[in-house]
Structure formats: structure tokens, C-alpha cells
Amino acid sequence: MRQYQLCSPKLAFVALVLVLAGCGAPEPPEPPPVQALPVDRIATGIDPHSFAEFDRVRVSHLSLDLEADFRRRTLSGHVVLELERKVPGHQRLVLDTWDLDIRDVNAVQDDGELMPLSWRLGADSDYLGTPLVIALPQGISAVRVDYASSPDAFGLQWLDGEQTASGRPFLYSQSQPQYARTWVPLQDTPAVRYTFDAVVRGPRDLLVLMGAAGNAIETNPTGEYRFEMPEPIPSYLMAIAIGDLEFAEIGPRTGIYAESAWIGPAAEEFAGLEQMVEIGENLYGPYRWGRYDLLVLPASFPFGGMENPRLSYVTPTIIAGDGSLLALVAHELAHSWSGNLVTNAAWRDLWLNEGFTVYFEARIMEELYGREVRDQLARLAWDGLMETLETADPRDRQLVRDLSDRDPEQAFMRVPYDMGRFFLDWLEDRFGREILDTFLREYFDHFAFQSITSEDFRDYLDTHLLQAHPGRVSLDEIDAWLYQPGMPAFAVEPVSDAFEQVDDWRRRWQADEVALNELPVDDWSVHQWRHFLIGLEGALDAAQMAVMDERFDLTGQTNYEILFLWLMRAIEARYEPGIERLERFLLEVGRNKFTRPLYQALADSEWGREWAIEVYQRARPGYHALTRQAAERALGISD
Ligand SMILES: [Zn+2]
């Protein structure tokens, strides 16, 4: 554990000289002596996952000036933080950092001159990083921190040319939930929103993008790019990406960025993007972020997507060739309202972001593909959620969860997503769609660009929905969803007629009443296929797998959702052609939703653990740190 790191005594001396010299200018205030910074007692505050004392002094704007060095794998430069003082006379600023090399800290005075400030790093904490404590003299309202990120920064994934489709290096960030602090020293809590501007210099032949306004559509020979984010965002939405990228326009305010191998298929797959934005606006009011572009990342991206404002990140594993996995794009877009516009104040309130977004995603899918597809997706979610609830930690079985002594990474499981969505489905059922839509539109308007708690929502809901339409829902029922473990008995279970037919065919086939050839699979949707594979009774043996493969070519599937379920079966049956495909899959894809259960199933199998460790060692250099962490846990290995 690293102990305190004192700033250079030289700087304190310079400050002293400045003060003594006077120079005819107004005397700059003298920084308090170093011993006035009791870093031992730095505790997390209102947000248990941040050291920031944002109730006393709050960051309102950032100016970033960074250089991306692919050889060293660092972002280095400085950030200027503009401050709003909430408590006059409060004498320190505490920032979140994690593995940052802090080089210099200065006040930026009104005339632009720098004045050295005393600073220290506090004690390291497991998953929260290290507080940076800066003395904040009276009258100072902007602080500049010069720093560099670590080559191992958790929030940055540096890829070599061998790990990308273009053969050129790639960098992308993932800041949610608490990884922004690994590449910018800031108040890393969703409770604080700020605007920012940035100048970033990268290699001359690569394109630099940010989740901001000002993204270029081709490389700039100087290698320098400028950005501005005029809408206030929370830190977890800070995003940067650098790569050999091309741009394809979809509509007047929508487009796709991808490496050249993906740009054609991606532009085709996401051709309806502009229409999706319009559907979103019709439902919940104007899109308030200017442009909406998608960035297709290399397959190592550990998530399906990330809702970085103005530039959502998506995995290429949703490019199925038939638009069947567009729910994920609907999801990231929906976050432009739920999450990016109205944000959870802390990770315990994550369901305010994700539950609303899954509900909203379902509404967009219904608009695009009809009620039946929505019902199929709902049923898949319900079945998955029920399985999760059976085994989840008792603290994790309701919408509002106590995460105060846990890594905020653990906020991300099915419950805030799917239970949150079924909560809104239930409200729709009780109040009717029209009333709920009006309420939601006003809710997004009322809390636009704010971060709120579950209790803020509960109060607003009580006044504007429950009391406005009395007799339909009680506050006790609301509290059952929010605070009591398990799915409330009065929740509305989704039904899909198409799935019931699949159940019937599956049962008859497994009872030998019909032959495989007779299954009417040509009419099946991707979701019906998923439901079929999930519901198969008992393990198939390798011979049965071969028969199915012969008939349906499941090993050759290009739809990753179906392929994943098939590979899980292949592990169970030790089905050779499937295992060969699995090896290629693991070497290529780093999406945690797939890799974690696959490694887990291999580790749990009688034969697969050693094989999986060997494949993992080869795949590891291309994986994101989050994928490595999850895979190593599953395999029971560590560095
Ligand atoms: Zn989401």
C-alpha cells in the first residue's frame, strides 16, 4: 500500500517567493502549510464510491489538454477544473484518481498565471483509487493538474495492430462506473455534472473521437483535435477513442464510425438509426444532444454498448446481417433520456438509468417490429431475471441496493435492468400507456441534466402519478419494488404466443413425437431460436448435437446470441466441431456477457479447465482488463 506522496518542497518555496516578492500585483494568497491537509481522514462522502466533497466545492467545467502516446500507452497533459464553492472558506479540494502520475498542481489565477498549490495523495483503496487532496486558498476558482495515465489504466484499452481489424493500433475508454479517474483526475461521482472542452493530440494517421461535439469525419494531418461538450455530463460518460476509423452518414444528425472492415456492414445494419432517434423523440421529447453517432469498437470491447453522449460505443457482435440484435442500439439511444439526461445520483440508484432504459428500448423495438417481438424480448428477460433472483445475494434482489461497501462494478447485474423494466411495465398496466407516457415525458423534462436518487423519484412519482390518478397504485406497492427483496407477486408476467409454440414443438421433439426435420424453424425469429436452445431439457450428447448441426448449421451461425447458446451446449456435450469454433470465438471476442459464462462453463466441466486456461493465455493480450478479471475469476487463476 502506497503511503502519502508529498509535493515537491521546491514548489512550496516558489510559492513563498511569489508571495514575498509581491511584484506590485495583488498578493496571491499563500497556500496553507502542508500539515493542514489531514489526508488520513479522507473518507468517502455522500457517494460511497467517491472521495469528492462535492457538497462543499464542486467542479463545474473541465478543460483537458492531452497527448496520446501509443508507444508508452499513456495519455498525458493537464486538466483545468473550474470550481463552484458551496461552502465559503472550505480550504481543500479532493479529487478521485487511480494510478495517475500526478506531476504538478497549480491554481489558475484570474490573470491566467499559475500559482503552485500544496497537494498530497491519500492512501490507496482497493477499487476506489487514491484521493488527491489539494489545498484551496480563498479566492481560487480554477485548479490545473498536470498528470499522466498509467499504461495499465483500467479505463483505457490500448490495442496493438494485431488485435484490430485494420491492423492499426486502437485506444478506447470505458469510464463507467468509476474508471474515469484512471485517465482524468476529477470528482468521479454521477452526482456531479460538468461541461468540458478538450484538445487531444494523437498519431497523425489515426482519428481521435470523444463523446462530445466537434468529432471530425476524417483524419487531420496535424493530429490535433478539439472538442466541446456544452451539456453537463457526469464523469462516467467521459469517452475517448482513437483508431483508423471511417465515417458513414446515416441521416442529418446520425452516422457510424468504424474500422474499414466494419463500416459497410455496420452502415447497413444500423440504417434505421435516424428513424430510431425520431421514435425516441415522439415518445419522450426532443433529443437534446445535437448529433447521435455510433462507434463500432473492436470485438475486445467488454460490453454490448456504452451510452457515451453524442457517440455511443457498440460491440461488432450485434452486427448480425439482419438487424435482429438492434435492441442494443435502441438501448444505448434510450440512455440519451434515461441516464444521460436524468442520471442516478449514486450506483445504488442504477435502476433509474437502466430499468427506464430497458423499458424505453422495448418501446422502440415495439414501434419498429411490433408487439410480438417486444413480448419475445420481455419473456427472455423475465426468464433470465427469475434465474438471477434465485441465486442473487439477498442485498441484490430489489431495485434499490446497498452497494456502500462493494465495488460499484457489482451494480451491474440483471436486477436494476430487468426488474426496473418490469416495474415500468407494471405501471403501464395499472395506469395505461397514455398516462404513463405523459408522466415520463414530464419527468425527463423536470429533472433534465440533473442527478437524482431513488427517493427523489419516489416523491415525484407519488405527487405526479399516484396522487394525480388516485386508487390505482399505492405507495406500499411502490416500496415493495424499491426496497423489498424478490419480484412482487403482483408484477405482470409477460407472455409470448410464439414462445409457447416453440415450447410445444421442443417438448414433442424431445419426446420423439416429431422429427427434427418437422420443426418449423424457417419461420422462427432469432429470439425464438434463443428460447428453443435455452429451454432444451437436460444435456444433449455429441451425437444429438451433430444431428442438429447437420440440419441447422448452428456451429456456422453468424448471429452471436444464437452461437453463444450453442457453444454453451457444445461445452456440455464436449462436441468437437463446436469446441473448435469456441476456440476461435474466445480468441476473437472479449464481450463479457459471452466470455464470462463460457469460461465458467469450461472451468466447471470435467475436461475443459486446462484447455480453457491455455486458450485464455493466448487470448489475454487482446482482452480488456474487465474481461481478464472476469475470466480469471471464472478459471480460478490470477496474475
Ligand atoms: Zn444501459
What brief labels describe this structure?
37% helix; Zincin-like; 639 residues; 5-stranded mixed beta sheet; disordered N terminus; 4 domains; 22 strands; 7-stranded mixed beta sheet; binds zinc ion; alpha+beta; Immunoglobulin-like; 18 helices; Neutral Protease, domain 2
Detailed description of the structure:
By secondary structure, the protein is an alpha+beta fold. It folds into 4 domains: 5-237, tricorn interacting facor f3 domain (Immunoglobulin-like, Sandwich); 244-336, 2-Layer Sandwich (Zincin-like), CATH 3.30.2010; 358-483, Neutral Protease, domain 2, CATH 1.10.390; 539-635, Alpha Horseshoe (Serine Threonine Protein Phosphatase 5, Tetratricopeptide repeat). Helix content is 37%, strand content 20%. It has 18 helices and 22 strands. It has helices at 9-21, 260-269, 273-284, 327-334, 350-369, 371-391, 414-431, 433-446, 454-466, 475-483, 497-510, 526-535, 542-552, 560-573, 576-588, 592-604, 609-619, 625-635, and strands spanning 5-6, 57-69, 74-85, 92-97, 101-108, 114-116, 119-121, 130-135, 142-148, 156-159, 170-173, 193-201, 207-210, 224-234, 240-243, 245-251, 254-259, 292-296, 305-306, 311-314, 342-344, 450-452. Strands 6-5-9-3-2-12-14 form a 7-stranded mixed beta sheet. Strand 16 (245-251) and strand 17 (254-259) form a beta hairpin. Helix 6 (371-391) crosses helix 7. Residues 1-28 and 31-36 have low confidence and may be disordered. Zinc ion binds at residues 307, 331, 335, 354, 357.
